[in-house]
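in:
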């Protein structure tokens, strides 16, 4: 894995990133979990999304099933019950924000979905890669959801 850019974040922001990794990708490989973290940080850097990790992870939380990170708006209470997976999610969040992790194949992807769903937005975006059960995308030049 290549290295990325280090960024200073609060403990709360680290928790939000670890939470996204845990609930979205704990069943995926280490690389798959890093890829999800990278998408979160790519959104933070993209003007179309909130400029904080927690803002990105919980964007549209009040709109049932209308957010990128389904755990945040599926109406199911989230409970961390796998301490080993939680520890790994925390490690990935820390290493990613420290600039130690970066996947060149994910690059600047801002979206992903599981292979078993077909979101309506996917055909309008550029497919970047697939890691495990997640397919990653980035915006086509000049295209936006707006």
């Amino acid at each position: 894995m290549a290295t990325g850019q280090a960024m200073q974040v609060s403990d709360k922001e680290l928790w939000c990133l670890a939470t996204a990794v845990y609930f979205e990708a704990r069943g995926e490989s280490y690389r798959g979990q890093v890829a999800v973290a990278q998408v979160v940080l790519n959104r933070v850097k993209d003007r179309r999304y909130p400029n904080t990790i927690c803002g990105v992870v919980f964007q549209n939380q009040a709109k049932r099933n209308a957010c990128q990170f389904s755990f945040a708006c599926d109406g199911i209470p989230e409970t961390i019950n796998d301490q080993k997976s939680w520890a790994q999610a925390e490690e990935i969040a820390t290493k990613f924000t420290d600039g130690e992790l970066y996947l060149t194949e994910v690059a600047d992807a801002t979206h992903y979905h599981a292979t078993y769903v077909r979101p309506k937005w996917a055909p309008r975006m550029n497919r970047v890669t697939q890691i495990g059960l997640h397919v990653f995308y980035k915006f086509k030049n000049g295209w936006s959801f707006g």
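note: Strands lie at 111-114, 125-131, 134-139.
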